[in-house]
Amino acid sequence: MRVLLLSFLVAASSSALAGAKDDFIAAAEKQCGVSKDEAAKLATGGRTGSVIKFKLCLEPEQTLSNGCKLRCTKSGSKIGK
What we know:
This protein is mainly alpha-helical and 81 residues long. It has one domain. It is 56% helix and 7% strand. The protein contains three helices and two strands, in the order αααββ. Strands 1-2 form a two-stranded antiparallel sheet. Helix 1 crosses helix 2 and helix 1 (2-32) crosses helix 3. The protein is globular, with a radius of gyration of 15 Å. The chain starts with a helix and ends in a 10-residue tail after the last strand. The mean pLDDT is 79. Residues 1-18 form the signal peptide.
């Protein structure tokens, strides 16, 4: 039972980030003028990776490993600042 529950939680968390990664790739393609493959390489995972930083929009601008500055445009990102 634990294995089944753990498998479900892993699948749910990875699918939740799938949309965020797609959003990041689309933004990198549009704002940085890179190909989809290059944008996918810039999409790093993990809790300190580029995808989560873009999704949470903690800073209005994020500098990627290739030097491109990716702008976050979520209006909710200014709350509490």
